[in-house]
Amino acid sequence: MAKQKKLLTYHQRQNRQGYRFMLPWIVGFVIFTAIPFVATIYLSFTEVRQTVLGFKITFIGLDNYIMAFFENVEFVPAMLSFLGMIIPYTFVILILSFILAYLLNKITFLKGFLRTIYFLPVIIMSGPVMYQLIDSSSEASRIDTYLKFSDIFIVQMVASYSRKFALLLIGIFDQLSIILWFTGIPIILFINGLQKINPNLYEAAQIDSANSWQILWKITIPIIKPLALVVTIFTIVNLGTFSINPVYGLIKTATENTSGGLGIAATYSWIYSFVVLILIGITFLIFHNKEKGRRQDS
Q: Is the pTM of this model over 0.90?
């Protein structure tokens, strides 16, 4: 009993030290995230106007949501444009980052230098260079995009079956430089996961006469699949914070509007957040380990 009490006391001391270590983050989370989170829910049902005496908040119910879906001519097209952008971008970033991480994990010569090159854009991604890169790829500067890529054989072949899919493919080609900028952190995450795979699994597979392709599909990808879920969620959230997301521009514009803009911005933010949560839920279903679920049921 005495040993159990000492052990319990030791665990309690460890837990207290852990909470003390997390205390600054917890306080910051409550002040800068939790409270604004709840306030945004309330603001989405109000009309906020700036007066001489400060902000005047008037409860208007679902009027902001009705306006966003049925009266505003920009929000629904922007949301559809966001969905048309986020799905192919996330897919391409996921595949490219895994391929690059797989190759970088195999390379032994200049490994650190090459990893630094791919991670370098992350360091300056939030700076003016990234926004200048995005602005240079805006719609105004891509008027002749289809003409630039229409001579490519693959584009012609795809366009013969579906012009919309060909335009989507052209859009990915046109903004490939931006897409590569978003692969920095996913590459690091994938490399970290690949390095933790037990080499004995590869040796056992080679003894059983498995080739590199079989090892990739039967060992590497199933083990790395949970990490792909994390990378996908990170990419969906990360892409939404830059001006390539048309909804982000509407939220920013509404926030800067002093005559009733905060309530509308909160409404846009909540609708956008709900759509993102749906995408994350679909991602969970895609990467859900069915075999693990069957084992738990049995």
A: no
Report the C-alpha gap between 122 and 285 in whole angstroms.
29
Report the alpha-carbon distance of residue 93 to residue 100 in Å, rounded.
10
Give the model confidence (pLDDT) of 114-131 as tens digits. Answer: 666 666 666 655 555 555
The answer to whether residue 105 is domain-embedded is: yes
Q: How many CB atoms lie within 10 A of CB 226?
A: 13
182 conformational bin, left if phi > 0, alpha if psi -120 to 50, beta if neither: alpha
Chain-wide mean pLDDT for the chain? Answer: 78
Say how far apart CA 247 and CA 76 lie, in whole Å: 9
Taking the C-alpha atoms of residue 166 and residue 34, their distance in angstroms, rounded to an integer, is 43
Task: Check which CATH number belongs to the domain holding 184 and give it.
Answer: 1.10.3720.10
Measured CA to CA, the distance from residue 294 to residue 256 in angstroms comes to: 51
In a domain, 7, yes or no: no
**What is the spatial distance between Cα 213 and Cα 94, in angstroms, rounded to a whole number?**
19
